[in-house]
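Bump. Still looking for Sll5028 protein structure tokens.
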Amino acid sequence: MGSSIESVAVDSDLLPFDPGMVALIQLMESRRSPLDNLRDLEDAVSYGWLLTTTQIEKLLGVKPRGEQFDRQGFLFTRQGKAGREAQWSITKITRGLRSVEIE
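Sorry for the wait, here they are.
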């Protein structure tokens, strides 16, 4: 289910590109689609993983607060602590959503 792209070390001497082109290719490969974060949340739901506050903040761009909150179609519920950080369970919100068929 994961959509992460694995980085591959490239010896620039073996390529017919200049170093600037190699750096640009590496930069393009390192970028993630905004949808990758949602796919990561889908994986957490599927596997029942608990994520820390820091992990959720990296995926959503907002720091979770309170006992429960929802964002981008997911419900996050505080489940205690892992060390100094809160852990959160994640549920996908499906009520009120319509399915759209693409032809």
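The chain has a mean pLDDT of 78.

Edit: fixed formatting.
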